[in-house]
Design brief:
alpha/beta; 8 strands
Amino acid sequence: MPVNWVDIDVGGEPMEAYLTTSGSDEPSPAVIVIQEIWGVNSHIQYVADRLPSQGYVGLAPAMFHRQGRMTMGLHEEFDNAIASMQQCTDAGIVADVQAAVDYLKAQPFVQSDKIGIVGFCFGGRVSYLAACTVSGLSAAVVYYGGGIMNTLGGDGPSPFDQTGNITAPVLGLFGEDDGNPTPADVATIDEALTAAGKTHEFHMYPGCGHGFHCNARSSYRPEAARDAWAKTMAWFDQHLKG
């Protein structure tokens, strides 16, 4: 499986991204993988590494590139990770994801009309926001995205406020013991999507907290992670291969 680090132009500045492909010249659908607050670390690379065997190109952009080139890893101090996230703005996030989509569309090995996005934690919020604002996405998966009802970097609308603008089917995967988002938060978002007539499915995992999919964290729950990943692949197969 070929792996490359590539630079994607975002407003004249480079954004690093981890790219995985099957090596085939035959165009494939693609999935953008959005990091937790820990950056494009070994776990996010592992997620992207799994995609080519399932028939997808994987691309994991470094969402904290404005704070420096790939300095964040799972064992960095929590306060530093939070600080990097808090320096992000929704405008910057949208620009980054749109640049990632545009990069994939320009690649001959990508089916340009079959691009999805999956995000974890911070990335779950990014995935939801992207479904509302980024053109060219055909499916979105949100793993325990916290802060969907809040704005980053300004007074504009939150991702939740933009629910009516969603254009991609959304799959949500959450832990019942999570504090951000809480089950009540998830219910509120679910109700808003239903009221807006948006295609979506939400699943809540008992006995799981935040980060249950990440095998490098103490919150990892293997059985739930396997089930959630199977649902993720089924969602992408339905909306990107159908």
